[in-house]
Specification:
Layout: H1 5-12, H2 16-47, H3 58-64, H4 68-88, H5 93-96, H6 102-115, H7 121-144, H8 152-176, H9 184-213, H10 221-247, H11 252-274, H12 283-306, H13 315-324
Length: about 325
């Protein structure tokens, strides 16, 4: 039996098409902003002797503010975040968030044109698998997920998990920083952290809307909301730092892959497992979620291993590095 389109529209909400459109625009801005930021980081990293590959210093972060390309990229990313958060108020997180994978395709094309380094077949296959996995995820999520009021218990669980994740990533960064960690570490870490940022931002926005509707009547639940805001800021700051460090040792499309594949998978997993957005999903849908998410993550890992610019000590990598340092 085919799903009723009217039922699907009811599940998504009347404003869902607007939310989806905003998410697509945000993905385009994310792709462009990432490309601009990458150019700025490449210049700063080159002038500091490539020390940023193990973590950008305060001086390097300050130097980024003097790079027009980085400032423009940051502004575009800021606008993308605003549009993305707005879209989350209009449609379920499991539908809107994965649409950011569009940015991966755009970034791959733009970066290849700018650097003059063509993507090989393996990299193209990895990108296709990433986008296809996320697309299937979105299609199934649109059928079986629905937003529900978030309870204090659910929110507390999210905050506890975030606290553990922050502690683990900070500890790993401190321990392995001087051992030249694999470049994909920063990509994965940033993607996981921003998955929590999106989830908590959705909660905070929803609570603010409730407070406004009740004419600014506050309750004890707002203490938990304040903790969410603190957690959101902490995850966003550390995630942003990891993104900038990732730019110094990864091609921009791999950085975007982390933000648009790992990020939504984490956000959607939280939505499904903790927040119950797929409480009524049939068993086959769960299997598809796992398979599609696994394919998308495999695509990111494959891209990190086979992307021409991610391969060290190769002619292609040298050409890409030389051109990226002179945007």
């Amino acid at each position: 039996m085919q799903p009723d389109l009217t039922d699907l529209a009811d599940k998504l909400g009347g404003n869902a098409p607007i939310g989806i459109a905003l998410a697509v625009i945000a993905a385009v801005l994310l792709a462009l902003g990432t490309q601009f930021q990458h150019g700025g980081v490449a210049v700063v990293d080159e002038r500091s002797g490539h020390e940023g590959k193990t973590g950008l210093s305060f001086g390097q972060l300050r130097s980024l503010l003097a790079r027009p390309s980085w400032v423009i990229g940051t502004a575009l990313l800021g606008l993308a975040i605003v549009l993305q958060l707005t879209s989350l108020t209009l449609a379920p997180i499991t539908v809107v968030q994965p649409l950011g994978a569009i940015a991966l395709v755009i970034t791959a094309i733009v970066n290849s044109r700018i650097t003059g380094v063509p993507l090989d077949r393996v990299s193209i296959r990895a990108i296709v698998i990433c986008v296809s996995g996320v697309a299937v995820f979105v299609a199934i999520a649109a059928l079986v997920t629905q937003k529900h009021p978030i309870t204090a218990t659910q929110l507390s669980i999210v905050l506890i998990i975030l606290s553990v994740v922050l502690a683990v990533f900070i500890a790993l960064f401190v321990v392995i920083r001087r051992r030249a960690p694999k470049p994909i570490f920063y990509v994965i870490a940033a993607g996981v952290l921003f998955g929590f940022v999106v989830t908590l931002a959705n909660v905070v926005i929803g609570r603010i809307q409730t407070i406004v509707q009740k004419e600014f009547a506050f309750s004890s639940a707002d203490i938990l909301t304040l903790l969410c805001l603190i957690g959101l800021i902490a995850a966003a700051l550390l995630g942003t730092y990891f993104v900038q460090t990732a730019h110094s040792s990864n091609p921009p499309d791999l950085v975007v892959a982390g933000l648009t594949v790992i990020d939504p998978i984490v956000a959607v997993a939280i939505g499904i497992i903790v927040l119950g957005e797929a409480a009524g999903a049939p068993f086959w849908a769960v299997l598809v979620f796992i398979a599609a998410g696994g394919c998308a993550v495999w695509g990111v890992i494959s891209l990190s291993r086979h992307h021409p610019q991610a391969l060290a000590n190769t002619p292609l990598a040298d050409v890409a590095e030389e051109r990226s340092q002179n945007p």
